[in-house]
Amino acid sequence: MIVFEQVTKIFDGRTVINTLDLHIAKGKITVLIGASGSGKSTTLKMVNRLIEHDSGRILFAGEETRSFKIEDLRRRMGYAIQSTGLFPHWTVAQNIATVPQLLNWDKQRIRQRVDELLTMLNLEPTEYRERYPHQLSGGQQQRIGVARAMAADPEILLMDEPFGALDPVTRSVLQDEVRRIHELSGKTILLVTHDIDEALTMADHLVLMDKGQIVQQGHPAHILAHPANDFVREFIGRSDLGVKMLSLQTVSERTRFGGSDAPIHLAIADNASLKEALSDFVAHEVNVLPVMNEHKQIIGELHFSDLLRAA
Ligand SMILES: Nc1ncnc2c1ncn2[C@@H]1O[C@H](COP(=O)(O)OP(=O)(O)OP(=O)(O)O)[C@@H](O)[C@H]1O
After folding, report:
1. Which partner for 267 in 12, 160, 178, 290 could form a disulfide, CB atoms 3.0-4.6 Å apart?
2. What's the gap in Å between 268 CA and the centre of ligand 1?
3. pLDDT on residue 282
4. 34 CB less than 6 Å from ligand 1?
5. CA distances from residue 230 to 6, 138, 197, 215, 245 in whole angstroms, order as listed
């Protein structure tokens, strides 16, 4: 979907992106992670040409981004950022409709799309459509930022620390929502974060950057199991590696299907992570948890020993 070939960016005589080769696959969530100043945001902003690269090529759908008119390029790419950039004097509906308005969609279609997005992001349209950004919580504002980025159904979503500055609970709810939307829509997402747990839970493809170059990339589980060097090892945090691995797998992957005699009030959802299961085992001091599906039916059980196999 997006290909970087030997891309370099120099600011004030300093090379901040250095002959970068990167492939952002269609339909996947690619996450750029690295320390502050490693060049993540610059890489993301070169995709929609908020920053122009100095050399090399960046291709979008097979063509150089430079061959597009900049407005056409940006309309095909949603962009969500930490500070949301919502227009304060516009209602939620107007904010979400920014790009559809530019594309001259008719009123009815815009309204339908706004309501659909609000519903998708768990905000009741009748309650939120006419509010102004200052009448929303930080987490709600970020949801609107995401809704606006998705409004005209762009081919790729660029997200720069979209959940930054949120408390851990809201952050995790929004991460789940974006993952769910991704699963429903199959949208290509490029996400920048400096939070390793966010990166591990969100990424199909994780790209670890340092000093404008890629240090290692691949599936999170692969990087956790086979860090390329000490830098990577240190970055992902060796100490709770096992727990991080558990966070990448779901209960259903280790469920012993069938009935269960374990106390039903301890049932864990089959789509919960094994890390959550670990927490339940410890909190309830049990060795076996019943597992339920989305309809709250018991479908089997998870044994504590099965976690060892997963890790
Ligand atoms: N417009 C600019 N002018 C000069 N230098 C810049 C500019 N934008 C970024 N830089 C520099 O380029 C380097 C990479 O910045 P970038 O914002 O891409 O890093 P980052 O990995 O996203 O960091 P953070 O996590 O802190 O946002 C930094 O050293 C930064 O100071």
Report:
1. 290
2. 43
3. 86
4. yes
5. 25, 37, 19, 11, 18
% of the chain at pLDDT higher than 70:
98
Phi, psi of 19 (to 5 degrees): 40, 60
Q: Give me the residues paired with residue 17 across strands.
A: 9
- Is residue 47 classed as helix, strand or coil in its secondary structure? helix
**CB of 55 within 8 A of CB of 5?**
no
Our answer on whether the CB atom of 217 is closer than 6 Å to any ligand 1 atom is no
Q: Is the CB of 38 under 6 A from ligand 1?
A: yes
Which residues make beta-bridge pairs with 3?
Answer: 23, 59
What the chain holds in terms of domains, given with CATH numbers, is 2-240 (3.40.50.300), 249-310 (3.90.1280.20)
Dist. CA 47 → ligand 1 center (Å): 15
The complex scores an ipTM of 0.95
DSSP assignment string, 127-160: HHTT--GGGS-HHHHHHHHHHHHHTT--SEEEEE
HEC-encoded secondary structure of 223-284:
HHHCCCCHHHHHHHCCCCHHHHHHHCCEHHHHCEECCCCCCHHHCEECCCEHHHHHHHHHHH
pTM of the entire predicted model: 0.82
